[in-house]
């Protein structure tokens, strides 16, 4: 029985910064950002988007018929959540009107969380083939104004329906995971930006990718030439190039990685969703991919957990990835000047539970954060005339 990704929905905030302009504002050579790091633009989340509203907007981008009564599990993976206790998945399920007869919970392990969710969902459907699961990766990557990591910020969410007879990617039962306790990136409770050593993290990532893919080859007797494409977690797109170079000098895989990096170049790092944004990018931008092609996916979450697994493209996959909506979402975005970005960056809802209220967001997003009342955040839904805040 094939089990895997049946549909993909994507959301990124309405605002972005041109990184050539950011480089000039920071006194850096723009080539460092666009070539050295491999980023062109980065999404900027206004105070009216958090990981719950972004996740709900990504679910809203899925065909609603895929979220029927068969749904049995809803997982949100995030490393930028808004509550220490309550799962974002519960609020996302309510906002998007999902069937309440589900298990809803969150997963955290830096940028690896969505992979844990995806493979857990695969096992769930294997045990209950008539059921489906919804896995949503949602994150806002913030490193701080004028920080070393600033150019690798971003924001967005990817929602995936997992089912038997998947119409996008059949996940193979070949995952190899590796865990090692290292201090490359972490965010102690109460801090709004992470403690990160980017160069150490890059070296750890490369160590993990060679070790894990090597182990996969030992366990499953495969070689790089078995793959039509290799995808990687992309904290910045140069990282994918470094990872591929550590494994192979294949020109064909290099071209496919370029296609798989296009959306990340425009959106930036979306942490746990980045690997799946890369899958979406490959399927949107490389018209030579075909049903039956094997794709290898490498997931890395600082701290650190890495996992490599593969999937086989399903016939008609292009009809189930919401490509037209992805193109429209990006085309409608609004560029921010650097001062406007800095102002938006600093205008976040404060930590804690003090009341807050925001005017409606001037964007096509269906779900936005309305504010905070009675200690809890409330959300606007543009399809409803009355909102939670009224
Ligand atoms: N033209 C072209 N390339 C240039 C350049 C120029 N003018 N100036 C620098 N570069 C290249 C460098 O050679 C380097 O490439 P290399 O890594 O292939 O050698 C790259 O640009 C980055 O330069 P570097 O000096 O290393 O930049 P930095 O010290 O500002 O650090 C990051 C870059 C990505 C490490 C930093 O932004 C960061 O820490 N980001 C967060 C990463 C993260 O989130 N990690 C955890 C998740 S996995």
TrEMBL record:
Which keywords appear in this protein's UniProt record, sorted alphabetically? Acyltransferase, Transferase
Q: Describe the location of the Hydroxymethylglutaryl-coenzyme A synthase C-terminal domain by residue ranges.
A: 177-247, 255-319
Single annotated GO MF: hydroxymethylglutaryl-CoA synthase activity
Keyword Acyltransferase found: yes
Indicate the family of this protein: Belongs to the thiolase-like superfamily. HMG-CoA synthase family.
Chain ranges of the Hydroxymethylglutaryl-coenzyme A synthase N-terminal domain: 2-164
Q: What's the protein name?
A: Hydroxymethylglutaryl-CoA synthase
The UniProt record lists the EC number as: 2.3.3.10
InterPro entries in alphabetical order: HMG_CoA_synt_C_dom, HMG_CoA_synth_N, HMG_CoA_synthase_prok, Thiolase-like
Decide whether keyword Transferase is in the record.
Answer: yes
The record ties this protein, via CDD domains, to: init_cond_enzymes
Pfam families recorded: HMG_CoA_synt_C, HMG_CoA_synt_N
| Species name | Schleiferilactobacillus harbinensis
